[in-house]
Amino acid sequence: MTVQSIDGKISAYEVAFRVYTKSNKIKWVQQLSKTISIDKEGKPRRIIEIYMDITAQLTINIDLEKKNKKLRELSSVASYYMQAYIRRN
Description:
alpha+beta; three-stranded antiparallel β-sheet; 2 helices; 3 strands; 36% strand
């Protein structure tokens, strides 16, 4: 993506990647980049980049996905037993 941005093909991009801390823990980082000025040849002169730690957000999303999966499984089992009960009565 960076090569495309330098060539002037895109003016902004967003990417997430992981990095290891000194204590060998994984941190997830989101990078936002935007070209704000280009030269006569169309190549970037000024680029703004922002880096954000999104580890907590990703951890919450993963936990939420696990809970939703369990909820779907429970719902499926409850539906099966409710339908069986209705058929018997």
